[in-house]
Amino acid sequence: MGKTDKGEHPLMFDDYVVQQVDPQWLQERVKPKRHIGLTPELCILCRACEDVCPWECIYMMSPDIVRDADSPSLMTLASQSHAVFIIDDNECTRCAICVERCPSDALWLGRVDN
Amino acid sequence: MSEEVQIDQEVYDRLIAGGTSERIARAKAKAAAVRKAKIAEGQNLGPRPAEQASKALEDFRANQGGGGGGAVATKTAADESAGNGGRLTPEERSARVAASLGGNGSTSIGVPTSSSHTHRLLALVPPAGIQQVQSKQMDKVYTWPHLLLVEFVALLAVGSLLLVASFFLDAPLGSLANPNEVPAINKAPWYFMGLQELLRYFHPMVAGVTLPGVAVVILMAVPYLDKNPSARPENRKVANMAFTFFLAFWGVLVIIGSFLRGAGYEWVWPWTQGLGFTL
Ligand code: SF4
Ligand code: SF4
């Protein structure tokens, strides 16, 4: 985990529950329609995104943090994964620095739309 | 990025001193400056009062377009301890989330009001993910084993060749030099024979300095003159031609100098006076 500008670690949890949500949820939840997305197949786990984010709101975590998931298959995927990427949408300003920094184009800035 | 936002010079200098790249240090310093400015304006960073969030949501609902898209979210019922150094406490976060969801009226799945933070899952990176080959590999081999194995075999071959050569070829040191007895032929080692041959035709200044100098300059300019990125021999016409000319020119000079020059550095055919070549 990268340290913040102030030398602190962001607030982290270890009991995440992976849940399927509908698009409306995402849109209601935080104001901007744009959201950061990540294509896992392309990610090389370099943690550069974590490092560059000025607001320290994107983090790569160990799969251990997932306590439960909606479906068994999702839980299996979570427990077999190399990494879990979490973003704090309320803190993220959609500055897309992480998108630009990502060396393998795994991150993207997408629009929540029909 | 617009330059209107001031950067926090102190943060910037510290990040630069810590080896952070210029662009990222600038972004972080800008973020720090914005935070500072907001705090100076008396704004409450991070946790906002629930009423303010509900008002923002109402405004948002008023001019909201359609919905859509898709996402996977995370939520938790963590009981985090307070005192997070200026960050949102779990209670503040759940208040914020609850307010942003408009309470019970929301039709979305939403985050339960007991949730203590607003993290969204971006992705799970499966083991296959980081090994997946996206495109067909072309023209690529791995250093190990492909290259190193070939290099090792080449090393063995050259080593054994040298061993055999040193066993069969006699390459003694000559007798002590005697200034009263100048040998009939005095030749440079074979790799300098081209130069020595050139001295036969040109003034020493031209043969020894100008021509090699020009050659070196041309060699240095090659990457700028021939920018062809292809690695296939048939696409490298200029490079092929240049090397062919070099071989034709220099190789022939070396051969002439080594084998076709006899006493007094005059032209002789090897079958009249024997080879003028010494090891
Ligand atoms: S878009 Fe900007 S603020 Fe959001 S996660 Fe990426 S770097 Fe951080
Ligand atoms: S910068 Fe891109 S490749 Fe690196 S960890 Fe982040 S998403 Fe993965």
Brief description of this entry?
The complex is a heterodimer of chains A (114) and B (279). With 114 residues, chain A is of the alpha+beta class.
Termini separation of chain A: 35 Å
Shape of chain A: globular
The end-to-end distance of chain B, rounded to whole angstroms, is: 69 Å
Helix content of chain B: 40-55%
The helix fraction of chain A, in percent, is 10-25%
- For the secondary structure, the number of strands of chain A is 6
Bound molecules: iron/sulfur cluster
Count of separate DSSP helical elements of chain B? 9
Averaging pLDDT over every residue of chain B, what do you get? 72
Largest sheet of chain A: 2 strands, parallel
Radius of gyration of chain B: 39 Å
Q: Report strand % of chain B.
A: under 5%
Unreliable runs of chain B, pLDDT <50, ≥5 residues?
Answer: 63-88, 100-116
Chains forming the largest contact: A-B, 65 and 60 residues
**Biggest sheet, spatial arrangement of strands of chain A:** 1-4
Q: Which oligomeric state applies?
A: heterodimer
Q: Which helices and strands occur, and which strands form pairs?
A:
The complex is a heterodimer of chains A (114) and B (279).
Chain A: E1 16-21, H1 23-29, E2 34-38, H2 48-52, E3 58-61, E4 66-69, H3 72-80, E5 83-88, H4 97-101, E6 107-111
Parallel strand pairs in A: 1-4
Antiparallel strand pairs in A: 2-6, 3-5
Chain B: H1 9-17, H2 22-40, H3 50-62, E1 71-75, H4 90-100, E2 119-125, H5 143-168, H6 193-201, H7 204-225, H8 237-259, H9 270-273
Pfam family, one (chain A): Fer4_7
InterPro entries (chain A): 4Fe4S_Fe-S-bd, 4Fe4S_Fe_S_CS
Organism (chain A): Egicoccus halophilus
